């Protein structure tokens, strides 16, 4: 049965999508059967894996509004072992459109529960805001992975995420656990990156991944070529770091 991991941080631009794409791809490369749910109306996880608008017939929005089945929405084997539920701008209307639906927070969960047995991991790439989509993702998830960028306001964003996770745990999903925090865009040439890591470590009594994702230009380039980092530049430090993160995520499963 899959472990469902929501990748979230209400702060924008911290490396959620980069982590969702490359962690999914590295788990798949390691032989795990993975579903990546693009749950951000920006659709960056979909385009970052090479999907053009014309390749996408149905999106996760159509699934949630019951217009299509899971099979009709899923794009199978975008890479070996990796399937994706794509997204597009239509998902931005969810906040208003789901208003009238009973149990609107549990929509995604109801669909993922049906297919959970078919995967080892389901990763959900969340939008950078606390809206009905993020609440749906956290209600569907077993664990939450929080990427935090090595910059000054890192702790601020983290505090908000942890509050939201506690709220969803109390009201909607008692089994929800923190998978861990992962530092992104670490720049070894600056003192700031090191200070942020030390600061978060001393203030956060929670799981922090040993793997730190470095700032790496190949990671920034890969999505514009529609490739994950292990396809785009398999020997880059970016690829190596996401492989290490995948190995940690797999081994952590044994403790969860
Ligand atoms: N480790 C890295 N090294 C270099 N560039 C990176 C790295 N991680 C992410 N980036 C770049 O930083 C930008 C923001 O990353 P990303 O889109 O993954 O963040 P996000 O949190 O998903 O953003 P949003 O809040 O808009 O959804 C992108 O241009 C991405 O290519």
TrEMBL record:
InterPro entries membership: AAA_dom, DNA_Partitioning_ATPase, P-loop_NTPase
Source organism superkingdom: Bacteria
Signal peptide coordinates: none
CDD domains cross-referenced by the UniProt entry: ParAB_family
Catalytically driven reaction(s): ATP + H2O = ADP + phosphate + H(+)
UniProt domain AAA: residue ranges: 3-177
Assembly behavior: Dimerizes in the presence of ATP but not ADP; ATP-binding is required for double-stranded (ds)DNA-binding. Interacts with DnaA.
PANTHER family hit by this protein: P-LOOP CONTAINING NUCLEOSIDE TRIPHOSPHATE HYDROLASE, PARA FAMILY PROTEIN CT_582
The family this protein is said to belong to: Belongs to the ParA family.
Name this polypeptide is given: Sporulation initiation inhibitor protein Soj
């Amino acid at each position: 049965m899959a472990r469902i991991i929501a990748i979230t941080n209400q702060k924008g631009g911290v490396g959620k999508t980069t982590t969702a794409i490359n962690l999914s791809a590295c788990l798949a490369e390691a032989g795990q059967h993975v579903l990546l749910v693009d749950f951000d109306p920006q659709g960056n996880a979909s385009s970052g894996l090479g999907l053009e608008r014309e390749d996408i017939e149905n999106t996760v929005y159509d699934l949630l509004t019951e217009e299509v089945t899971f099979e009709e929405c899923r794009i199978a084997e975008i890479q070996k072992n990796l399937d994706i539920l794509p997204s597009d701008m239509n998902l931005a209307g969810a906040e208003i459109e789901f208003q009238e639906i009973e149990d609107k927070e549990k929509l995604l969960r109801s669909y993922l529960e049906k297919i959970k047995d078919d995967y080892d991991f389901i990763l959900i790439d969340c939008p950078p805001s606390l809206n009905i989509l993020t609440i749906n993702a956290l209600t569907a998830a077993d664990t939450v992975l929080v990427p935090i960028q090595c910059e000054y306001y890192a702790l601020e964003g983290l505090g908000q995420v942890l509050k939201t996770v506690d709220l969803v745990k109390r009201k909607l999903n008692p089994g929800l656990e923190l998978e861990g925090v992962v530092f992104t865009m670490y720049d070894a040439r600056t003192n700031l990156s090191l200070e942020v890591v030390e600061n978060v470590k001393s203030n956060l009594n929670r799981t922090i991944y040993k793997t730190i994702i470095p700032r790496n230009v190949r990671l920034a380039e890969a999505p514009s070529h529609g490739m994950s980092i292990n396809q785009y530049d398999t020997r880059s430090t970016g690829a190596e770091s996401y492989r290490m993160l995948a190995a940690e995520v797999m081994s952590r499963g044994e403790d969860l």
